[in-house]
Amino acid sequence: MIRLKKPCPRCSNLSVVVHRNGLSCESCDFKVSYCCPICDANLSQASFSEGSDPQYTCETCRNTVSLAKIAYIIDNGMHLDCTSRCPYCNGPTLHRQSMNMGNRCFFFPRCSGPVDLFGGKTERSFVFLDFETTGLDAGRDAIIEIGALKLDGEGLEHVYQSFVKPPVAISAKITHITGITDEMVAHAPTIAESIHKLVAFLGDATLVIHNADFDMMWLGTALLQHSIVFPDRPVICTLKWARQNQETQCSLGALSKKYKIGHQNAHRALADAAATKELFFIFDQLKKDQRPELAVSDYMGKCQQIMARYGLVPIS
Asked: What domains does the chain contain, in order, with CATH numbers?
Protein backbone atom coordinates (compact mmCIF):
# COMPACT_ATOMS: atom_id res chain seq x y z
CA MET A 1 0.00 0.00 0.00
CA ILE A 2 1.03 3.62 -0.60
CA ARG A 3 -0.07 6.43 1.72
CA LEU A 4 -1.39 9.63 0.14
CA LYS A 5 -0.09 13.06 1.13
CA LYS A 6 -3.60 14.51 0.78
CA PRO A 7 -6.02 14.33 3.72
CA CYS A 8 -9.09 12.14 3.72
CA PRO A 9 -12.09 14.04 2.24
CA ARG A 10 -14.30 12.64 4.99
CA CYS A 11 -12.30 12.83 8.24
CA SER A 12 -9.41 15.13 7.13
CA ASN A 13 -6.76 12.80 8.54
CA LEU A 14 -3.62 11.91 6.58
CA SER A 15 -4.62 8.27 6.58
CA VAL A 16 -5.72 7.43 3.03
CA VAL A 17 -3.86 4.56 1.37
CA VAL A 18 -3.81 3.31 -2.21
CA HIS A 19 -4.15 -0.44 -2.55
CA ARG A 20 -4.88 -2.96 -5.33
CA ASN A 21 -7.80 -1.22 -7.02
CA GLY A 22 -8.98 1.46 -4.64
CA LEU A 23 -8.43 3.99 -1.90
CA SER A 24 -9.43 3.59 1.72
CA CYS A 25 -9.00 5.58 4.90
CA GLU A 26 -7.49 3.91 7.95
CA SER A 27 -9.28 6.37 10.25
CA CYS A 28 -12.85 6.29 8.91
CA ASP A 29 -15.07 4.36 6.50
CA PHE A 30 -14.06 6.34 3.38
CA LYS A 31 -13.49 3.95 0.49
CA VAL A 32 -13.52 4.29 -3.30
CA SER A 33 -12.40 2.05 -6.15
CA TYR A 34 -10.71 3.00 -9.41
CA CYS A 35 -10.34 1.43 -12.86
CA CYS A 36 -7.24 0.88 -14.95
CA PRO A 37 -5.99 4.35 -16.02
CA ILE A 38 -4.85 2.94 -19.37
CA CYS A 39 -7.96 1.13 -20.63
CA ASP A 40 -10.61 1.89 -17.96
CA ALA A 41 -11.12 -1.81 -17.23
CA ASN A 42 -12.25 -3.09 -13.85
CA LEU A 43 -9.25 -4.15 -11.76
CA SER A 44 -10.94 -6.74 -9.59
CA GLN A 45 -9.13 -9.53 -11.48
CA ALA A 46 -5.81 -7.69 -11.90
CA SER A 47 -2.69 -9.52 -10.77
CA PHE A 48 -0.76 -7.75 -8.04
CA SER A 49 2.87 -7.79 -6.93
CA GLU A 50 3.98 -6.70 -3.46
CA GLY A 51 7.42 -5.39 -2.54
CA SER A 52 9.13 -2.01 -2.31
CA ASP A 53 7.29 -0.87 -5.46
CA PRO A 54 3.82 -2.51 -5.38
CA GLN A 55 2.26 -2.81 -8.85
CA TYR A 56 -0.74 -4.31 -10.57
CA THR A 57 -1.03 -5.73 -14.08
CA CYS A 58 -4.35 -5.15 -15.85
CA GLU A 59 -5.88 -8.33 -17.27
CA THR A 60 -7.41 -6.38 -20.19
CA CYS A 61 -4.61 -4.19 -21.56
CA ARG A 62 -1.72 -6.08 -19.87
CA ASN A 63 -0.09 -2.84 -18.74
CA THR A 64 1.69 -2.76 -15.38
CA VAL A 65 1.12 0.33 -13.25
CA SER A 66 2.87 1.26 -10.01
CA LEU A 67 0.68 2.23 -7.05
CA ALA A 68 3.16 5.05 -6.50
CA LYS A 69 2.11 6.45 -9.89
CA ILE A 70 -1.56 6.35 -8.86
CA ALA A 71 -0.69 8.14 -5.60
CA TYR A 72 1.38 10.71 -7.50
CA ILE A 73 -1.52 11.54 -9.83
CA ILE A 74 -3.91 12.02 -6.91
CA ASP A 75 -1.50 13.95 -4.68
CA ASN A 76 -0.63 16.38 -7.49
CA GLY A 77 -4.23 16.98 -8.57
CA MET A 78 -3.55 15.72 -12.08
CA HIS A 79 -6.30 14.94 -14.56
CA LEU A 80 -6.15 11.70 -16.52
CA ASP A 81 -7.40 12.31 -20.05
CA CYS A 82 -8.28 9.24 -22.11
CA THR A 83 -9.68 11.34 -24.99
CA SER A 84 -6.44 13.24 -25.66
CA ARG A 85 -4.12 10.35 -26.52
CA CYS A 86 -0.37 10.39 -26.91
CA PRO A 87 0.46 10.64 -30.65
CA TYR A 88 3.41 8.26 -30.24
CA CYS A 89 2.10 5.39 -28.12
CA ASN A 90 -1.65 6.13 -27.97
CA GLY A 91 -1.55 6.10 -24.18
CA PRO A 92 -3.70 8.44 -22.07
CA THR A 93 -2.30 11.82 -21.06
CA LEU A 94 -2.00 13.75 -17.81
CA HIS A 95 -2.35 17.44 -17.14
CA ARG A 96 -3.05 19.81 -14.28
CA GLN A 97 -6.46 21.42 -14.62
CA SER A 98 -5.33 24.41 -12.55
CA MET A 99 -2.78 25.57 -15.12
CA ASN A 100 -2.09 25.44 -18.83
CA MET A 101 0.37 22.57 -18.77
CA GLY A 102 0.66 20.67 -22.01
CA ASN A 103 -0.67 17.13 -21.77
CA ARG A 104 2.05 14.67 -20.76
CA CYS A 105 1.95 11.04 -21.80
CA PHE A 106 1.03 8.76 -18.89
CA PHE A 107 4.14 6.73 -19.71
CA PHE A 108 6.52 9.70 -19.57
CA PRO A 109 9.52 9.53 -19.73
CA ARG A 110 9.49 6.05 -21.28
CA CYS A 111 7.43 7.69 -24.00
CA SER A 112 8.21 11.33 -24.70
CA GLY A 113 8.19 12.34 -28.32
CA PRO A 114 10.39 11.13 -31.13
CA VAL A 115 13.16 8.78 -30.07
CA ASP A 116 15.73 10.76 -32.05
CA LEU A 117 15.44 13.60 -29.54
CA PHE A 118 16.80 11.17 -26.98
CA GLY A 119 19.68 9.89 -29.06
CA GLY A 120 17.96 6.51 -29.23
CA LYS A 121 17.26 6.37 -25.49
CA THR A 122 13.59 5.97 -24.69
CA GLU A 123 13.76 6.25 -20.91
CA ARG A 124 15.26 9.23 -19.19
CA SER A 125 14.97 11.21 -15.97
CA PHE A 126 15.03 15.01 -15.82
CA VAL A 127 16.04 17.50 -13.14
CA PHE A 128 14.73 21.06 -13.43
CA LEU A 129 17.35 23.20 -11.69
CA ASP A 130 17.66 26.78 -10.46
CA PHE A 131 20.03 28.77 -8.23
CA GLU A 132 19.53 32.03 -6.35
CA THR A 133 22.76 33.96 -5.84
CA THR A 134 24.21 37.09 -4.22
CA GLY A 135 25.08 38.52 -7.64
CA LEU A 136 25.73 37.72 -11.28
CA ASP A 137 29.42 36.70 -11.19
CA ALA A 138 30.03 33.01 -10.44
CA GLY A 139 33.67 33.69 -9.54
CA ARG A 140 33.00 36.48 -7.07
CA ASP A 141 29.45 36.02 -5.77
CA ALA A 142 27.85 33.09 -3.96
CA ILE A 143 24.91 30.68 -4.23
CA ILE A 144 22.29 31.27 -1.51
CA GLU A 145 19.57 28.81 -2.56
CA ILE A 146 19.31 25.63 -4.62
CA GLY A 147 16.04 24.32 -6.02
CA ALA A 148 15.87 21.07 -7.97
CA LEU A 149 12.82 19.09 -9.06
CA LYS A 150 13.42 15.61 -10.46
CA LEU A 151 11.11 13.55 -12.67
CA ASP A 152 12.39 10.00 -12.42
CA GLY A 153 12.16 7.13 -14.88
CA GLU A 154 8.54 6.50 -13.88
CA GLY A 155 7.54 10.17 -14.13
CA LEU A 156 7.37 10.64 -10.34
CA GLU A 157 8.56 13.90 -8.76
CA HIS A 158 11.31 14.30 -6.13
CA VAL A 159 12.55 17.57 -4.64
CA TYR A 160 15.87 18.89 -3.34
CA GLN A 161 15.72 22.38 -1.83
CA SER A 162 18.23 24.09 0.41
CA PHE A 163 19.41 27.50 1.49
CA VAL A 164 23.19 27.89 1.29
CA LYS A 165 25.20 29.96 3.75
CA PRO A 166 27.22 32.50 1.73
CA PRO A 167 30.61 33.89 2.82
CA VAL A 168 29.31 37.45 2.34
CA ALA A 169 26.24 39.40 3.43
CA ILE A 170 23.21 39.44 1.12
CA SER A 171 22.67 42.89 -0.36
CA ALA A 172 19.39 44.77 0.02
CA LYS A 173 18.92 44.52 -3.76
CA ILE A 174 19.11 40.71 -3.75
CA THR A 175 16.80 40.52 -0.72
CA HIS A 176 14.34 42.75 -2.58
CA ILE A 177 14.44 40.46 -5.65
CA THR A 178 14.41 37.08 -3.90
CA GLY A 179 13.03 37.76 -0.44
CA ILE A 180 16.02 35.89 1.03
CA THR A 181 17.64 37.57 4.05
CA ASP A 182 20.85 37.01 5.99
CA GLU A 183 18.79 35.57 8.84
CA MET A 184 17.28 32.92 6.54
CA VAL A 185 20.71 31.57 5.53
CA ALA A 186 22.54 32.08 8.83
CA HIS A 187 22.32 28.41 9.82
CA ALA A 188 22.15 26.92 6.33
CA PRO A 189 24.67 24.33 5.11
CA THR A 190 27.80 25.53 3.32
CA ILE A 191 28.19 25.28 -0.44
CA ALA A 192 30.54 22.31 0.08
CA GLU A 193 27.80 20.36 1.88
CA SER A 194 25.06 21.50 -0.47
CA ILE A 195 26.83 20.79 -3.74
CA HIS A 196 27.65 17.21 -2.70
CA LYS A 197 24.01 16.61 -1.77
CA LEU A 198 22.84 18.17 -5.03
CA VAL A 199 25.15 15.96 -7.12
CA ALA A 200 23.85 12.87 -5.32
CA PHE A 201 20.29 14.03 -6.01
CA LEU A 202 20.98 14.69 -9.71
CA GLY A 203 22.23 11.16 -10.36
CA ASP A 204 22.47 10.69 -14.12
CA ALA A 205 19.45 12.89 -14.96
CA THR A 206 19.28 15.29 -17.88
CA LEU A 207 19.37 18.90 -16.66
CA VAL A 208 16.68 21.37 -17.72
CA ILE A 209 17.40 25.02 -16.90
CA HIS A 210 15.93 28.37 -17.90
CA ASN A 211 19.06 30.27 -18.96
CA ALA A 212 21.57 27.46 -18.68
CA ASP A 213 24.38 29.85 -19.70
CA PHE A 214 23.92 31.46 -16.26
CA ASP A 215 23.15 28.57 -13.93
CA MET A 216 25.69 26.18 -15.45
CA MET A 217 28.47 28.65 -14.59
CA TRP A 218 27.52 28.32 -10.92
CA LEU A 219 27.16 24.56 -11.01
CA GLY A 220 30.36 24.01 -13.00
CA THR A 221 32.46 26.38 -10.90
CA ALA A 222 31.21 24.75 -7.67
CA LEU A 223 32.07 21.31 -9.08
CA LEU A 224 35.60 22.43 -9.97
CA GLN A 225 36.15 24.21 -6.67
CA HIS A 226 35.18 21.14 -4.69
CA SER A 227 36.95 18.60 -6.93
CA ILE A 228 33.72 16.75 -7.68
CA VAL A 229 33.70 14.30 -10.57
CA PHE A 230 30.47 14.89 -12.45
CA PRO A 231 29.61 12.54 -15.33
CA ASP A 232 28.70 14.33 -18.53
CA ARG A 233 25.01 14.53 -19.43
CA PRO A 234 22.65 16.62 -21.60
CA VAL A 235 21.56 20.13 -20.62
CA ILE A 236 18.35 21.55 -22.12
CA CYS A 237 17.88 25.33 -21.95
CA THR A 238 14.25 26.51 -22.04
CA LEU A 239 15.40 30.12 -22.59
CA LYS A 240 17.13 29.10 -25.83
CA TRP A 241 14.07 27.02 -26.70
CA ALA A 242 11.85 30.09 -26.23
CA ARG A 243 14.10 32.10 -28.54
CA GLN A 244 14.05 29.32 -31.14
CA ASN A 245 10.25 29.37 -30.89
CA GLN A 246 10.40 33.14 -31.56
CA GLU A 247 8.71 34.12 -28.33
CA THR A 248 8.48 37.89 -28.06
CA GLN A 249 9.44 37.85 -24.37
CA CYS A 250 11.62 35.04 -23.10
CA SER A 251 11.98 35.66 -19.37
CA LEU A 252 10.56 32.95 -17.12
CA GLY A 253 8.13 35.46 -15.63
CA ALA A 254 6.82 36.61 -19.01
CA LEU A 255 6.47 33.06 -20.33
CA SER A 256 4.73 31.93 -17.13
CA LYS A 257 2.22 34.75 -17.56
CA LYS A 258 1.66 33.99 -21.26
CA TYR A 259 1.11 30.27 -20.73
CA LYS A 260 -0.80 30.68 -17.45
CA ILE A 261 1.80 28.77 -15.44
CA GLY A 262 1.28 29.08 -11.70
CA HIS A 263 4.45 30.86 -10.59
CA GLN A 264 4.10 31.99 -7.01
CA ASN A 265 7.34 32.91 -5.22
CA ALA A 266 9.12 33.91 -8.43
CA HIS A 267 12.89 34.33 -7.97
CA ARG A 268 12.94 31.56 -5.41
CA ALA A 269 14.89 28.54 -6.60
CA LEU A 270 12.34 25.74 -6.29
CA ALA A 271 9.48 27.89 -7.58
CA ASP A 272 11.53 28.82 -10.65
CA ALA A 273 12.53 25.18 -11.17
CA ALA A 274 8.86 24.14 -11.02
CA ALA A 275 7.87 26.86 -13.52
CA THR A 276 10.68 25.67 -15.81
CA LYS A 277 9.24 22.16 -15.64
CA GLU A 278 5.80 23.35 -16.73
CA LEU A 279 7.31 25.44 -19.54
CA PHE A 280 9.33 22.42 -20.70
CA PHE A 281 6.15 20.37 -21.14
CA ILE A 282 4.31 23.19 -22.88
CA PHE A 283 7.13 23.60 -25.41
CA ASP A 284 7.37 19.83 -25.76
CA GLN A 285 3.64 19.71 -26.57
CA LEU A 286 3.84 22.59 -29.07
CA LYS A 287 6.68 20.83 -30.96
CA LYS A 288 7.62 24.09 -32.71
CA ASP A 289 11.33 23.36 -32.67
CA GLN A 290 13.70 20.67 -31.47
CA ARG A 291 14.94 20.98 -27.90
CA PRO A 292 18.21 22.95 -27.73
CA GLU A 293 20.53 20.45 -26.11
CA LEU A 294 24.17 20.81 -25.12
CA ALA A 295 26.25 18.79 -22.65
CA VAL A 296 27.68 19.68 -19.25
CA SER A 297 31.15 19.45 -20.82
CA ASP A 298 30.23 22.26 -23.23
CA TYR A 299 30.03 24.65 -20.27
CA MET A 300 33.08 23.54 -18.30
CA GLY A 301 35.61 25.49 -20.40
CA LYS A 302 34.03 28.79 -19.31
CA CYS A 303 33.93 27.55 -15.72
CA GLN A 304 37.67 26.84 -15.86
CA GLN A 305 38.20 30.38 -17.21
CA ILE A 306 36.27 31.74 -14.21
CA MET A 307 38.49 29.71 -11.87
CA ALA A 308 41.62 31.11 -13.54
CA ARG A 309 40.35 34.70 -13.67
CA TYR A 310 39.70 34.84 -9.94
CA GLY A 311 42.60 32.64 -8.86
CA LEU A 312 40.26 29.97 -7.46
CA VAL A 313 41.88 26.65 -6.63
CA PRO A 314 40.20 23.26 -6.14
CA ILE A 315 39.52 22.23 -2.56
CA SER A 316 40.56 18.60 -2.11
From this structure: 2-75 (2.10.290), 121-309 (3.30.420.10)
